[in-house]
Amino acid sequence: MKVQVMLGASALAMAVAAPALAQSNQSTATQTGTNGAITVTQSGSDGTSTVTQGGNLNRATLNQSGSLNRSTITQDNGVGSSDDNNTATVTQSGSENVSVVSQTNDFSTTTVVQANDSNDSDVSQSGDLDLASVTQTGSDNESDVVQVGNINTARIAQGGDGNTSTMTQTSGLNEAIVTQNGNENTSLATQEGVGANTLNVLQEGDENLSDIVQGGAGNGVGTTASAGVIQLSNENTATIRQAGGLHTAFVEQKGGDLNTASINQGANSSTDHDAQVRQDGTDNDATVNQRGFNQLADVRQGGDGNSADVAQGDGQGRDHDAFIVQDGNDNTADIAQGGERQSATITQPGSDNEATIDQGRNRLPGVAGVTDTGFGADQVASISQSGSGNTANTIQRGEFQRATISQVGDDNVGSGGFLFGAQITQGGDAGRDNDATITQLSGSNRALIDQQGDSLAANVTQGGTGSNTSTVLQTGAGGAVLLNADVLQNGADNTSMVDQTGTGQTASVDQLGEDNLSTVLQSGSGHTATVIQNSNANLSTITQSGAGHSATVTQGS
Question: What is the pTM of this model?
Fold first, then answer.
């Protein structure tokens, strides 16, 4: 049965379609404006349709071919103006579907297609030039779209079963795309603030949760061409919060299940942050928190049971970079960056490793460069753990520090007074231009480099069969020398201590045998100490103070 109503100016009409008894459909159409058009086609059974239109040149089209479908279309704000030129099209070919459309401003368009059973769609648009499209080809899906500002676009496609999508856009120029082809997925999205936000969610797996809130201007979670949240596996959770300016966030969860990704960026006078999380394993956890200015964070988890945490820019920071790659299993990586312009990288192709980088610092109250001359800046830190069961830690303050830790062997962990298998601490609040490197090629080694001052450099390499211990403590200024402390342990069970204070000290220690002990203590300025232990069970102690001394010890051949 088909009912078409065309009403002229200042007319009031109500058309109630009396369907055939076999079909038992009911349709109510009410128009109070001018030049409106309503077309209702009910070829199914037990369908209910209500259409109410005011304003000028509104169009409503409803097709019901299934059974027990309900549709309500309202294009009337009740005040007799500002509800013109709206278009609503609803097609219900399944059964027991519910569609509610409300458009109460001008030039908005809604299209709803329900081609299966027990779907629920609710669209409310109160701005101008809004566009909403809802396509439900699965069953038992629920979609809610609320658009308040002007020129918003929402496209919802639910091809699976039991999915839920809630979309709220409360300012203008927002664009959102949600595609749910899996089953029992949930997508929650709110775009608010100044507007111009973009959002794209693709859920192909089952029982996934995507929760996104964006405020401010120019935020992006994907584009119209590429999805910002991609959930291809099952029982994954993605949470994104963006408040502020030109942020971009991207989450991809595929391959494995039970992954969790959280991105929170913006606020604190923030600008254009960028965060990406890719999870291709199972039961991984990634958290990114970014404040300040031009931060970039990228987390990639290809293994299982990994945890990654990035926090940067909260100290009124600048343009930090953070990069974490976890291809092994059960790894933990944490990056915290305050200060300005830091860069940190952690790669963990091995398993059961722990790595932590903490660098830069928060700005003190006052004028930068006057009351806070030691504000952290331009630190670079990297940790690579290709072995398994290792622990590493880097702490850098001050300015222009560089720290590198590489753990190729296994089970380099803290013990006997060492908190970590490898640890670098340098710079202090006012230090600058320090450089430290620890390389552990074998297992069960422990190394500590602690440098507080300016232009200090230290290098520790631990190979052989392992179980070596090295400590380098340096304070003062390195001067013009190329390297202040260089320790090579290529045997087993060797112990080296280098403790230097003052200016321009140089120490070189080579332990190539086993069970050797070397201690170098230097204070003053301009000293040089060289220790070479080629055989086993040697003991060497060098103590120098004053200025300009040189000492060389060779043990074994």
Answer: 0.91
